[in-house]
Amino acid sequence: MRKPSPFVWFTVPAVLVVLAVIVFPWLFTLWMSLFDWKIGSKAVFAGLDNYLELAGNRRFLEAVGHTLLFTALAVLAPLLLGTAAALVFHRQFAGRGFWRAAFVLPMMATPVAIALVWTMMFHPQQGVLNYLLSLLGIGPSEWVYSPRLAILGLVLVDVWQWTPLVMLIALGGLASLPADPFEAALMEGASRWQTLRHVTLPLLLPFILVAAVVRLIDALKTFDTIYVITQGGPGTASETINIYLYLQAFSFYQIGKASAVVVVFFALVVALSGLLVWLRERSKYYE
C-alpha cells in the first residue's frame, strides 16, 4: 500500500475552513428547511411541508418568473453588447486604450452607489432619462415606477454595469484565438463578414459561454441593486427570489420557509450553471 504524502497535512487548514464556512452552513440550512420555525417560537419538524407550500405559493412562483426574466435579459443583452464591443476594441484605432478604460468604468463602482444614481435618473419628473426622451420628442416614461416596466428598468441598470465584464472576457478570448483558421479563411477569399460568422464567433463561443456562466450566477443572485431601486415594487412587480427570501427571513422571520427558498434557489443556480458548462464543453475548439 502506497504511503500517503506528508504534505497532505498542509491541506488540513484549508479543508477545515471549507467545512466551517461552506459545508456546515449549507447542511444546516438544509436541516432548517425541514422545520416550521419562526424567530421567537419553538421549531417544529415539518418535513417537506415548506417545499410543498412554496410549490403552491403564487407570490413565490411570480418571484421565480421575475427572476428568470431578469436573468435572461441581464445575461443575453451584455453577451451581445459585450461581444460587439470586444470586436470593436480588438481592432487598432487612435485612442483605443483610453476608450477601453472608459468603457470598463461602470463595473468599478459599487452596486449600491450605482443604484442610487439610477434611482435619481429614473425619477418621472426630475430624472435625466425623461429629459433625454423629451429631446427626442418622446413622452415621459414611468420607468421602474410602472409595474409593466420595472423589470426592464432594472435590467437596463444591470446591463450598463456588467457589459464591460463580458467585453473583457471576450477580448481575452480574441487575443488567444489560433491564427491558422484565419489564415485559411484569407487564402480561401472569405469576406470579413464570412470570417466573423464562420471563424471568429465559433472559436470565440467557449469564451462567450464562460462570460454567460459568470453573468448567469451574478444575475440570479442580484439583490442590492433591486432592493435599493424598487425593493421589489411597485407592489411585487419586481420581486425576485432574493427579495422574497429577504422578506421571509428578515421581515416575517420565517426561518424555516426562508431556508427552503435558499435550497430551491441553490438547485436552480446549479441546474442553469451546469447547463451552460455542458454547452461550453461541447463548443471547445480542438486543433
Describe the structure.
Helix 3 (58-89) runs antiparallel to helix 9. This protein has 287 residues and is mostly helical. It has a single domain (56-282), classed as MetI-like fold. The model has no long low-confidence stretch (mean pLDDT 89). It has helices spanning 12-32, 49-55, 58-89, 96-103, 111-121, 128-135, 150-176, 180-187, 192-220, 224-229, 241-250, 255-282, and strands spanning 35-36, 44-45.
In CATH, what is the homologous superfamily? MetI-like
Q: End-to-end distance, in Å?
A: 40 Å
Q: What is the number of beta strands?
A: 2
Main β-sheet: number of strands, strand sense, barrel status?
A: 2 strands, antiparallel
CATH architecture: Orthogonal Bundle
What global shape is seen?
Answer: globular
Major β-sheet strand ordering: 1-2
* Count of individual domains: 1
In terms of DSSP E residues, the strand content is: under 5%
Short key terms for the protein model shown above:
globular, MetI-like fold, two-stranded antiparallel ribbon, 12 helices, mainly alpha, 1% strand, 2 strands
SSE map:
Layout: H1 12-32, E1 35-36, E2 44-45, H2 49-55, H3 58-89, H4 96-103, H5 111-121, H6 128-135, H7 150-176, H8 180-187, H9 192-220, H10 224-229, H11 241-250, H12 255-282
Antiparallel strand pairs: 1-2
Structure, briefly:
By secondary structure, this protein is mostly helical.
